Amino acid sequence: MLELSSNTIKVLGIFGRLSPELEVTLDAIEAKYSDKPQTDEYEIFRHLTLTFVNDATVVDVHEQLSLLKELKQFLPLKITPGKAFVKDEESLSGAEHIAFEFELGQTKELVDFIKSKVGEDIAVATWYIKLVWFVPKDNQQAVRDELSKITELEFTDFYLVANKQDEANTVFKASEF
């Protein structure tokens, strides 16, 4: 029997997921140049953050699922990357990732749509995506050189995720509607 007490999810969000083909390419670069810790803590998928809800309630879950269904119309989302840059890891001092920046105008229609549905406090306008994690300084230029061959970032799905951006915490995918 379901209990009558109410709990919350620590964090809930919708994230853009790169195409499987691009993920394979990035995994190969990461395997070659990264010192990513081999712990579950950092086993997350590369993502474009679109929404972020702290202490999500059941109502928030419903709202995010409804939004996820509507976001399917924006797939595939294609973004032309700008320059690659070093992005510090907030949760581990000294760790650096290589990310692509991009012009916010490329996601403006999508972000405006999200804001109209869930409000500005939940919608996230992200201007970068981390692509290769935990890159030592000696390898950073080589990673940038390899990433310079990528001329387009294609997001082929949106994931609703609870607490961590990984498969085990994925609640639903836009492609499942």
What is this entry, summarized?
This protein has helices at residues 20-33, 58-71, 108-118, 137-147; strands spanning 9-18, 47-49, 53-56, 77-79, 84-88, 96-101, 128-132, 153-162, 170-173. It has 177 residues and is an alpha+beta fold. A hairpin with a 7-residue loop joins strand 8 and strand 9.
What does this 3D model show about the protein?
This protein is an alpha+beta fold. The chain is built from four helices and nine strands; from the N terminus they run βαββαβββαβαββ. The strands form two sheets. Strands 1, 2, 3, 4, 8 and 9 form a six-stranded antiparallel sheet that branches. β5 (84-88) and β6 form a beta hairpin. The longest helix has 14 residues, at 20-33. The relative contact order is 0.26.
Judged by helices, strands and strand pairing, the structural class is alpha+beta
Give the end-to-end Cα distance, rounded to a whole number of Å: 28 Å
Number of helices: 4
Strand portion, in percent?
A: 25-35%
Average pLDDT figure: 93
Q: Rg from C-alpha positions?
A: 17 Å
Order of helices and strands: EHEEHEEEHEHEE
What's the number of extended β-strand segments? 9
Task: Please estimate the helix content.
Answer: 25-40%
Sheet with the most strands, sense and barrel status? 6 strands, antiparallel
Overall, the morphology is globular
Which ranges are low-confidence, i.e. pLDDT below 50, for 5 or more consecutive residues? Answer: none
Quick tags:
globular, six-stranded antiparallel sheet, 177 residues, 28% strand, 28% helix
